[in-house]
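Inverse folding, one chain.
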């Protein structure tokens, strides 16, 4: 029920303890299924399937288009009927049912994700790095701790996402507040830098 069908009969576990019934007295039938454990497993599986993913998008440098498994949080969803399928890494093809678009909010202006291919068979929602950089005039810089999306003309960071996982999920890092309490002066910089000399100041 929870795995592939086996060609031979599956192994079953039975209780093998000593019997407390006297000889000759029929025993009650043994139930080979642990119904409580089965129900608990199904409830856990149901809650996992029903709960929304904490991270919905993953950066993908090899994806030719943005891809999503459903249209729930997408805009301008349009059914398609003759679209070429999505070819995944193992060579399998997944049918495309819709085309849609969405926006990724940032501290400055949202990043546009037009032409999102929707296929219910997808396991993860993917952002095509190539399409993202072309459509939004940005660059994406990857490092060991995550990635940064930068405005191409100014090179300023407009979105930073950290990750400890093997993937690069779109999980924006909380903004850091920097407060300036006073206007910097020569005396203030002198206190910060020590004695650098008038030329350095």
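Residues assigned per position:
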């Amino acid at each position: 029920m929870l795995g592939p069908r086996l060609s031979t009969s599956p192994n079953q576990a039975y209780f093998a303890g000593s019997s407390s019934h006297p000889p000759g007295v029929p025993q009650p039938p043994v139930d080979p299924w642990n119904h409580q454990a089965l129900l608990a497993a199904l409830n856990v599986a149901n809650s996992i399937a029903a709960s929304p993913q904490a991270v919905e998008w993953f950066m993908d440098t090899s994806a030719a288009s943005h891809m999503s498994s459903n249209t729930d949080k997408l805009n301008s969803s349009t059914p398609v009927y003759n679209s070429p399928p999505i070819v995944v890494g193992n060579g399998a093809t997944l049918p495309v049912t819709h085309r849609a678009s969405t926006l990724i909010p940032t501290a400055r202006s949202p990043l546009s994700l037009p032409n999102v291919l929707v296929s219910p068979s997808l396991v993860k929602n993917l952002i095509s790095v190539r399409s993202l950089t072309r459509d939004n005039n940005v660059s994406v810089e990857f490092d060991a701790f995550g990635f940064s999306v930068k405005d191409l003309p100014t090179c300023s960071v407009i979105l930073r996402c950290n990750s400890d996982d093997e993937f690069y999920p779109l999980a924006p890092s909380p903004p850091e507040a920097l407060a300036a309490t006073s206007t910097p002066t020569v005396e203030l910089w002198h206190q910060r830098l020590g004695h650098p000399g008038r030329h350095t100041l």
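The domain at 57-162 is CATH 2.40.70.10 (Cathepsin D, subunit A; domain 1). The two ends are 74 Å apart (CA to CA).
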